[in-house]
Amino acid sequence: MRQLPALTLSQLDYLVAVADSRSWAGAAATRGVTPSALSQGLAELERRLGVRLFERDGRRRTLAPTAAEVLAYARRVLADTDDLARWLDQVRSGHAGPFRLGMIDAAALGHWPHTLQALRSEHESVSLQLSIGPSGQLLDQLQANQLDLAVIVAPAEMPPGIDWTDLLRDPLAVYAPPGVVPGPPSTWGPWVSFPAASHTRRLIDEQLRRVGATVDVQSESHQPEVLKEMVRLGLGWTVLPVIQAEGGVSPLIRAQPEPLLERRLVAARRNGRLPHPLTDWFIKQLVA
Asked: Domain check: are 158 and 271 in the same one?
């Protein structure tokens, strides 16, 4: 087996700090060391690796192209080390500790609010850190080791390093402004919808075009309640998850009886990492 020279976590952490900071002084400050100590640690890292990690740009030192692979390795090692440290703390303390959970709004407020309540009541020692946001944002946070689990809309292609469990098919329907008599799909619109970069928006646009509708989006919002209000104000048509559009005190009325499409909701987590002790329990509750 090929072996690396003896690298320290501090050296790898210094490399990540420099990559993420605007200056060496700023990088040193984020790690609580002097610029001199930071420079010495990185010089030793270069010496042990035997490759150049930095280049001179006037008075500034910038990352060399050969540093890219080393930086990616450093980020992986530090993330894995953080996972192991948190897991050991949880095991030694006898409770789960912080559980970093991300969910889209339809999952947290529509499909599984009682599962969140059960988590709080059955695991009182857990410090639940719940993030509500769009799927793309939550997936980025999961990859960056900022979440233990994310309940999201399945993307067209799951990125490497992510495992997922299918949870349910979430129906979405078409809704027209009050007083509008729906005609054939070619007459639908204009639309108010999710932002163009969202997973759900991509699915909606593809299906609308498939049935012969023109996709003319006038306004965008990540928040279904905002889109519902726009429809009620007559600003446009929309396609929303049924559980959100038809819930609450002012439900929307479907433009056609059948849903337009379904989206897959999945529970995603990083593979090859030590899972949070509550991850499997929570996924089982979601599936049940």
From this structure: yes
Is 2 a member of any domain?
no
Residue 94 has pLDDT above 50, yes or no: no
Final residue of a structural domain among 87, 120, 147: 87
**How many C-beta atoms lie closer than 10 Å to residue 90's C-beta?**
19
pLDDT, mean of residues 126-130? 87
**Number of residues that this document lists for the chain:** 288
- Please name the residue that has the structure tokens 């349910």: 168
**CB neighbourhood size of 264 (10 A):** 16
C-alpha span between 34 and 80 (Å, rounded): 26
What are the distances in angstroms from CA 148 to CA 61, 85, 183, 217?
Answer: 35, 14, 46, 35
Residues 246 and 191 in one domain: yes
Task: Classify strands 162-175 and 191-193 as parallel, antiparallel or unpaired.
Answer: unpaired
Q: Cβ distance 43 to 15 under 8 Å?
A: no
Cα distances (Å, whole numbers) of residue 174 to 77, 136, 177: 47, 23, 10
- Percentage of the chain beyond pLDDT 70 is 96
Mean pLDDT to the nearest integer, 220-230: 94
Token reading at 84 = 């192991």
The answer to whether residue 188 is domain-embedded is yes
